[in-house]
Amino acid sequence: MVNGPEDLPRLDLDAVDWDSIVWAGPAREVERLRQRIFKAAKEEDWPKVRNLQKLLLRSRSNTLISVRQVTQRNAGRMTAGIDGEVVLTSDARADVAVRVHQSIRSWQPLAVRRVYIPKGGNSKKLRPLGIPVIIDRCHQARVKNALEPEWEARFEPRSYGFRPGRSCQDAVKAIHTSSKGSHAKRVWALDADLAAAFDRIGHIQLLKAIGDFPGRGMVAGWLKAGVFEPGKGFAPTGEGTPQGGVISPLLMNVALHGLEEAAGVRYIATGVRAGDIKPGSPTLIRYADDLVVLCHSQEQAVQVKARLAEWLAPRGLVFNEDKTQIVHLSQGFDFLGFNVRRYGRKLLVKPSKAAVARLRTRLAAEMRALRGSNALAVIARLNPIIKGWAAYYRGAVSKRVFASLDHYLWKLLYKWSTWSHSDKPKHWIVDRYSQQVQERPLGVRCPRHQRLRRQVRLDRHRPAHPGQGRGVTRRPGPGRVLGQPATEGQTSAGQLHDAPAHQAGRPLPALRGPPSPRRAATRVARAMGTMVAANRPQGDLRGLPRSPRKTRPAARR
Questions:
Q1: Among residues 467, 506, 546, 119, which one has the least CA distance to residue 320?
Q2: Helical ranges in 370-491 per DSSP H
Q3: What global pTM score does this model have?
Q4: Which SS3 state, helix, strand or coil, does residue 246 take?
Q5: SS3 for 256?
Q6: Is the CB of residue 60 less than 8 Å from the CB of residue 2?
Q7: Closest by alpha carbon to 192, among 333, 69, 57, 88?
Q8: How far apart are the C-alpha atoms of 555 and 557, rounded to whole Å?
Q9: SS3 52
Q10: Tens digit of pLDDT for each residue in 352-378?
Q11: Which tens digit of pLDDT belongs to each residue from 422-454?
Q12: CA distance 532 to 549
């Protein structure tokens, strides 16, 4: 049963056998309710939306799915809040599920634990995170499942950050689609970044945007829960939302909903082009608190920036002037690790120089830490990094960058091997590790790129010569062309010989050499099934006709 009764009776721990739960059932029930909420929000049937949200908030399936996501599938499941509790066993997860379901109406949010992590763009700067306790995270996942479908039906079409089914590549593709081609109109960009957006969101405006959502009181409790920092103690929170919370990215998107309208973006409402941006209107692409506005002129970009600053002020948000700029696309700008720039009439998206430098620094640090380790440890440590980076940038113009990183990684691996075997010659080191690298490549490769060995068997009958490259056929010998006399039960040797080009119905390749005068062709054994030129050296096939011809039988004497 999806929902408990109104009084929510106590859920018996013995009845929750975590290892025996068939998760397809609860997942299907939660997904069905989310789809119904989305459909009702699209139809603007708000009473039905609220009733379905209440149904989902009381759902036992929602509780189980939320606890599983937080305690079993999330990467931060081993990080504790201020109470120091982590849940790593099946019995503990079942106990947490019972506690969460029993405290749906009575739970009071606790303060978050403040920790600092290095920023991705600058390791010298630290980013504050707020880690809620495990029960708070489970409740936030429950509330998110009920609130997210409503706002997915209301969000702007070009908002991509922390939304289901959307990614950074979608945001970059939207930029490329808006400004590609030799006749592109939007050639000016407002590259903007919000300063400490998660820590400065206004609570009043955010709760006003949520409206009469059934879980509004719990959301307000999380916003006012406060922060506990070791060495400084407890501090109340009058603004912002904890960046480490499960529901925080969704609240950020809710707070920034309406940026497109403030920037002056207008869409075509009717006709076959409904949903396209009107000519002369700017285009706004946003990923969380990073946004790009593509404009027709520099003056339009300045006006859009002023309107957005005015819209952000009541919500407690401002632009980070150090990272906000207005540039022409011929100069280019960095967005989400990509560099977007026009080269003449063509718009190219490449990995940014900063992203490449960060990867080089990380690879060098990993290789220094792996000194003294064996090859398997190096492969196991580097492969996830290389595959993840290559998969992220595979859709961009990355061929030269991948080749450069491949060469850089080879130098790191060679330096690692020489450090591990300082008393061995170079040829010994290459012979020892080249085979391992060939079987399981370590370098950064283009997607679906494979290196073939120098000797590749092209088909079952014709291997390549060791000195030949890929796809070069080997010259067939005379025995492969002429075959052997047929024995009883076999067909003619013309169908049995090993020249695959002839078997496949293709003409044999012409061999280079000076033309020679025609000579009369003599008949060979009938079992050989072909005609060859007489008095020719073995292996010379220039006299071989393209198709067999019928010869007139000799007159009887």
A1: 119
A2: 375-392, 399-420, 426-439, 478-482
A3: 0.73
A4: coil
A5: coil
A6: yes
A7: 333
A8: 6
A9: helix
A10: 999 999 999 999 999 999 998 888 899
A11: 899 988 888 887 654 444 444 433 344 444 344
A12: 12
